[in-house]
Amino acid sequence: MSKRFTVLVVDDEESTRGFLHSVLTVEGYDCQLADSLEAAEILLRQSRIDLALVDLYLGTANGLNVLDLLKVIQPQCKCVVMTAHATVETVARSLSGGALEYLSKPLLIDDLLALVRKVQSARPSLTKEIASEEPFPETAIIGRSAKMLEVYRAIARVAASTASVLITGASGTGKELVARAIHAHSDRAHKPFMPINCGAFSETLLESELFGYEKGAFTGADTNHPGLFEAAHGGTIFLDEISETKTGFQVNLLRAVQEQQVRRVGSNKYIPIDVRILAASNCDLEALIQAGAFREDLYYRLSVVTIHLPTLAERHEDIPPLIHHFLKRSNVRNKRDIQITSDAVQFLSNMPWPGNVRELENFIERLAIFCASGEIGVADVEREAGGKRQPHPAVAGNGPAPTLQEMERQHILRVLQEAEGNKSKAARALGIERKTLYEKARRLGIDLQANKR
Ligand SMILES: Nc1ncnc2c1ncn2[C@@H]1O[C@H](COP(=O)(O)OP(=O)(O)OP(=O)(O)O)[C@@H](O)[C@H]1O
Ligand SMILES: [Mg+2]
């Protein structure tokens, strides 16, 4: 077959069409251009296209309609969606609508060409995608950094399957939000989503919560009680802080997940279950496995897919949109109309956020509540932040740069001092849960008692 690989570019922006045309023709591809849905349809009906590069926003038309056209006119044609406004919804919709990939604008030539080559060399049979006509519900995950786009892609890819997903990332990075998004974008969305914080229960309580119990199984068990596995039938269970579980419990959990059945405590009858498992951890499970505190077999079972969430420090560019999002939400909630100056946004973007998005969220909420003038300025941020902005003792001076762990330790010690050893207050100021503070203190060798006045 001598016919060249043909790429159709559908974009209403002339500059993008021109750019893609030159890049693709230089590389030896046959490139056709369409500036609208209608123009694309005409070209698709005229000649065979191998790959369509489609802008999501075609003026008033929706680029996803091109996917529908493709299904009818040229089902073999692959499609890549492009947009400057990536959200988890648009990525998920594109991918589940049949798009092969999702590219964020501005386009990077290398990424684009790598993708075109990949499509060119892919066997046609490998590209069947999961199709769903269901519109996706809203899940507000904010951020358009490359790292978050990666997360959206992963969510979109795994949502439709029943694979177990392990969500990792530091405290406050949005692990639960991602778990909810996976559930909301799956075909289990209309069934229950049941989160359980494994760190909040003792081993036996956790077992009776998850597996249920029979009347008389233990003192206080005065009725039959179905566990979460039964209650979540058809839906999703989110095992938060899975690292906090004991190995005895892990054995039972693994068995339930593997055999897809549970036995209530005090019963010998097995009950079939149909649940999808999502788990989250903010510490390094592989290190726990090494230390013998986490079962490797369970780890492999839970981490069929792993989604890692970046810290805010790794995606600075997401801070301004997050600030605006939280401020808007606070305004709606409190029926106010507080604004923020761009200097204040800039200032906030340069502050450290060890408690990640949760800390930023709490901070914006506080700023909005205490803002009397109607506009948050740098002075308000400084006042509210107190000493937060000054360099950490470990950073000041000319010595070698401290490790991240040391900085975290110093920061926690300082906040504890400011909170006069009050752990709840310190956890709040750090934007983390009290339990997380304990965990960090243990890991970083901070004596919480010694820091109490
Ligand atoms: N990308 C994001 N966009 C909008 N809100 C976010 C984002 N990430 C996190 N949040 C918000 O920050 C808070 C913390 O998120 P979440 O509870 O999902 O974090 P987590 O990783 O589970 O933290 P932890 O390990 O402390 O439990 C929530 O209120 C959540 O709505
Ligand atoms: Mg959480």
Primary descriptors:
alpha/beta, binds adenosine-5'-triphosphate, five-stranded parallel sheet, 19 helices, 18 strands, binds magnesium ion, 453 residues
In brief, what are we looking at here?
The chain is of the alpha/beta class and about 450 residues long. It contains 19 helices and 18 strands.
Structural description of this entry:
The chain is an alpha/beta fold. It is built from 19 helices and 18 strands. The longest helix is centred in the last third of the chain and has 16 residues, at about 320-335. The chain is globular and about 75 Å long. The protein starts with 5 loop residues before the first strand and ends in a 9-residue tail after the last helix. The relative contact order is 0.08. The model is unreliable at about 125-140 and about 390-400 (pLDDT under 50).
